[in-house]
Specification:
The structure holds two protein chains of two kinds. By secondary structure, chain A is α/β, with parallel strands linked by helices. Chain A has ten helices and twelve strands. In chain A, strands 6-7-8-3-9-10-12-11 form an eight-stranded mixed sheet, with helices on both faces. Chain A has a four-stranded antiparallel sheet with strand order 2-1-4-5. In chain A, strand 9 and strand 10 form a beta hairpin. Chain B is α/β, with parallel strands linked by helices. In chain B, the strands form two sheets. An eight-stranded mixed sheet of chain B has the order 6-7-8-3-9-10-12-11, with helices on both faces. The two termini of chain B are 22 Å apart. The chains are: A alpha/beta, B alpha/beta. Chains A and B meet through helix 6, helix 7, helix 8 and helix 10 of A and helix 7 and helix 8 of B.
Chain lengths: 322, 343
C-alpha cells in the first residue's frame, strides 16, 4: 500500500529567449512511491532536481508530464479548489529556512492554530488545546510559554520544530521535508531527525526527506533515491545502497563525504562540468565524469534496472539490461 | 600522532608560532546591550600547519578570524589582548602597516567570497588589481602568475578572460582561493570556505588546498561548523563555545579521546556512514544568548554531567568559570569534570 505514487514525472523549465529556446530537464521520468510509516531519502548535489521533485509533489509547480497518484486520483492535474485543498491537507511541506517560513509579526500560537481553523480539524473550542498538544509532540515545552513567543525569540532548531508542528496540525499522511536540517546548528540536527523517526513510528507518516547529506539519510531513512541531473540513477534500501552502491555517481557521493575514519579518502577531481541538463543529448548524463564508462554510455540512455533484489540503477556497466 | 611527542609544550610560548592570539577579548556594541563575542581566547598557529577552529553559529569563530586580520569594524571592538604575527604585535599598527601585512603575510577567504568578485570585471583583471595593490609587478607578469595559480586550483587558465557569472559557484570560490595565494602568504585563513557548496565540490577544493599547502608551505586557519571536515583535513583542532575555547588537541587525538562534554556531543552529532545504525542524541538545548551568558561554565545548562545531585561539583559548574588546562601534551580542556578527574 503506497501513500503516494509518482509515475514518470517530468518537469522542464524554459531558458533563453524566444529564438534560442532551450529547456532545463530539471526532473525527468522520475517514478517512486512513498509508503506509510516509511522515510524515503532523496539525495543528490545542488542542481540535481531533488528540490524540484518535492515542490512538484507539494503542487507548487505543475509537472510537464507524468502523474502523482494519491488515493487513486492523479493530483498533479487537479484543478478544482476542493480537490487541491483536500490534497494539501494530506500532504505538507517543510522548508530549509525555518525563519523564512514563519511570519515574524505573528506569535507561534497563530502559526499552529491557523491550519487547525482553516481546515476545521477540531471544533473551535478545542483549537487551543490541540495547538498545545502539537507543540508538545514536537518537543516545545511548556507549550503555553512557547505559544506566546514570536519567531525571533526562538532558536533555529525551535523554529524548525514550529514548522513541523504546523505541518502536523492538519494530520497529514505525507510530509515532504526539503533539507530541513541543513541550516541548523550541528548539535541540534540529530534532534530534528529523531523527531522525524518518532512521528513516522507514532503517526505512520510517509516522509520524503530531501537532502545532500548521505550520513543523515542513512541515519533516518528506510529507502533511498539518488538523483543526478534530473534522473533517479539509483534506488533501494538505504543501508544496502550505501554499503554496496551500484551507480558510479553514488560511489562518488559516498567518497566525498567527510569521514574521519578514513583519513586517506580521496576523490578524482572532475573532468567534465556540473550536471545541469540543458537539452541533454541521448546517453548517460554522468558519462563525462564517469570512471568506468564504456562506448555505449554516450549513445544510449541507460534505463533503471533492478540488478539486485530491491536495488536498481541506471548504469550500462553495473546494472546492464539483459 | 607523532607530533604529540615531538613538540613539547614549551614551543607554544616561544617564537615558533606564526600567529599568536593572547587573551583576546572582542565586544560588539556598548553599554547594557553589549555582547562579548570573544572572551579571553588564546590560540596559536604554527608555520606550515592546518589548524581547525570549530563551533556553532554565533560562537565567535569568525570574530576571532577578523581580529587576527585586524579587520574588526564597529560595532565590534578589540577590548584587550594581543595579536602577534612572528612576534610582532599588530594591535595599534597604522592602517598603512596593516595594509601591507594583509595579503602579503596573511590572506583570508570568506564564506560567501565567491560573491565578492566584481561582476563587471574579467577574472584576470581582478588578479592584476589585487597583486598590483601590494607589489610592483607589470601586467603581463601578473597575468602569467594568475594563470599558473588558476591551474593550481584546477581551472583552465583561459578562464582569466571570463566574467564571474560565467563560472559556477565552486569555480568562483577556487578563483578566490587562487587570488588569496597570489602574494604567497604565510597564513591562509579560510572562513567556512565551502559551506555554500555541495559535498563533491567541497572535497575537490579542500584536497587542492591541502596539496597547495604541501607545495608552498603556508599555514592554514580553517574555520567551520563542520567538525567531521576538520577531523579529516586538519592537524590540530580548537573547539569554541560561546566565545571561549573549550578544548584543543591534535585532530586524531580529539577524534579518539575528546574530553569536553561539548566536543563529545559534537562528535555524537554526526551519524556514521558505516557500522551499525544506532540512535544518537546530539546535544540537548541550544547555544546561549551571549548578551546574557550562563554563569560558571557556559556549557552547564546543556551539559549531561551537570546535575544538582552532585552538589559540590554542581556549585563549581554553575558558579566558577573553568580554565583551559593541559591534560596531555598539546591537549587542553576547560572543564570542571576533567579537573576533578571525573571525565
Amino acid at each position: 500500500m503506497s501513500a503516494l505514487e509518482v509515475r514518470d514525472l517530468s518537469k522542464r523549465f524554459p531558458v533563453g529567449g524566444a529564438l534560442r529556446r532551450s529547456h532545463v530537464h530539471a526532473v525527468e521520468d522520475v517514478s517512486f512511491e512513498l509508503r506509510p510509516g516509511t522515510i524515503t531519502a532523496l539525495v543528490g548535489e545542488s542542481g540535481s532536481g531533488k528540490s524540484t521533485v518535492a515542490r512538484l509533489l507539494a503542487r507548487l509547480y505543475d509537472p510537464t508530464s507524468g502523474a502523482v497518484l494519491f488515493g487513486g486520483d492523479d493530483v498533479a492535474r487537479a484543478r478544482r479548489r476542493r480537490d487541491v485543498l483536500r490534497y494539501r491537507s494530506q500532504v505538507q511541506i517543510i522548508f530549509q529556512d525555518p525563519f523564512g517560513s514563519l511570519n515574524p509579526v505573528k506569535t507561534i500560537r497563530h502559526h499552529v492554530e491557523r491550519p487547525l481553523r482553516i481546515h476545521r480539524i477540531v471544533p473551535r473550542e478545542q483549537v487551543e488545546e490541540r495547538a498545545h498538544e502539537l507543540l508538545r509532540a514536537v518537543g516545545l515545552v511548556p507549550p503555553e510559554e512557547v505559544a506566546a513567543k514570536y519567531p525571533h525569540e526562538l532558536s533555529g532548531g525551535q523554529r524548525q520544530r514550529v514548522a513541523i508542528a504546523r505541518a502536523l496540525a492538519v494530520e497529514p499522511k505525507i510530509v515532504l521535508a526539503d533539507e530541513p536540517i541543513s541550516m541548523l546548528d550541528v548539535s541540534i540536527r540529530i534532534g530534528i531527525l529523531n523527531l522525524m523517526l518518532k512521528l513516522k513510528a507514532e503517526r505512520g507518516i510517509a516522509f520524503l526527506y530531501v537532502t545532500h547529506d548521505l550520513a543523515s539519510a542513512r541515519y533516518v531513512a528506510d529507502e533511498i533515491l539518488v538523483m543526478y541531473a534530473g534522473q533517479i540513477v539509483e534506488r533501494g534500501p538505504v543501508e544496502q545502497v550505501l554499503a554496496e552502491p551500484l551507480h558510479p555517481y553514488t560511489r562518488l557521493l559516498l567518497a566525498a563525504v567527510p569521514d574521519p575514519a578514513r583519513k586517506a579518502g580521496r576523490i578524482e577531481p572532475r573532468k567534465g562540468l556540473a550536471s545541469a541538463a540543458v537539452d541533454p543529448p541521448e546517453g548517460c548524463r554522468f558519462v563525462g565524469r564517469c570512471p568506468i564508462a564504456i562506448d555505449v554510455c554516450s549513445r544510449v540512455t541507460p534505463p533503471l534496472v533492478e540488478a539486485k533484489p530491491g536495488q536498481a540503477a541506471r548504469c550500462h556497466v553495473t546494472a546492464p539490461s539483459t | 600522532m607523532t607530533a604529540l611527542v615531538e613538540e613539547p609544550v614549551a614551543v607554544r610560548t616561544t617564537g615558533a608560532a606564526l600567529l599568536e592570539l593572547r587573551e583576546l577579548v572582542v565586544e560588539y556594541g556598548s553599554g547594557p546591550r553589549r555582547v562579548r563575542a570573544v572572551d579571553g581566547v588564546d590560540l596559536e598557529i604554527r608555520a606550515g600547519e592546518i589548524l581547525g577552529l570549530a563551533g556553532e553559529s554565533g560562537c565567535g569563530k569568525t570574530t576571532v578570524a577578523n581580529a587576527a586580520m585586524q579587520i574588526l569594524r564597529p560595532p565590534a571592538r578589540l577590548v584587550s589582548g594581543s595579536v602577534r604575527f612572528r612576534g610582532d604585535d599588530l594591535v595599534g599598527k597604522s592602517a598603512e602597516e596593516l595594509r601591507r601585512f594583509r595579503w602579503r603575510n596573511v590572506s583570508m577567504v570568506f564564506q560567501s567570497a565567491m560573491n565578492a568578485l566584481n561582476p563587471v570585471m574579467r577574472v584576470g583583471d581582478q588578479f592584476v588589481d589585487a597583486m598590483r595593490a601590494h607589489e610592483r609587478i607589470d601586467r603581463r607578469r601578473a597575468l602569467r602568475r594568475a594563470g599558473e595559480l588558476l591551474e593550481l586550483v584546477g581551472i583552465d587558465r583561459r578562464r582569466l578572460r571570463a566574467y564571474p557569472h560565467e563560472l559556477s559557484g565552486g569555480m568562483r570560490q577556487r578563483v578566490i582561493i587562487a587570488m588569496a595565494l597570489s602574494l604567497n602568504p604565510e597564513l591562509l585563513i579560510l572562513d567556512e570556505p565551502t559551506t555554500a557548496l555541495d559535498v563533491v565540490v567541497q572535497r575537490e577544493i579542500l584536497q587542492q588546498v591541502e596539496a597547495l599547502k604541501r607545495d608552498f608551505g603556508f599555514a592554514v586557519l580553517f574555520i567551520t561548523h563542520d567538525l567531521s571536515l576538520l577531523l579529516e583535513f586538519t592537524d590540530r583542532i580548537a573547539i569554541m563555545y560561546a566565545g571561549e575555547i573549550v578544548e584543543e588537541a591534535p585532530a586524531e587525538r580529539l577524534a579518539a579521546t575528546a574530553q569536553h562534554p561539548y566536543t563529545q556531543g559534537l562528535l555524537q552529532s554526526f551519524p556514521p556512514l558505516h557500522g551499525p545504525r544506532s540512535r544518537m542524541t546530539g546535544i540537548p538545548g541550544s547555544p546561549p544568548d551571549l548578551r546574557d551568558p550562563p554563569s560558571g561554565c557556559r556549557f552547564h545548562p546543556r551539559c549531561p554531567h551537570c546535575v544538582p545531585e552532585r552538589a559540590g561539583l554542581y556549585l563549581r559548574q554553575t558558579a566558577e568559570r573553568p580554565v583551559l588546562r593541559e591534560v596531555a601534551p598539546g591537549h587542553r580542556v576547560a572543564c570542571h569534570l576533567v579537573e576533578e578527574g571525573l571525565a
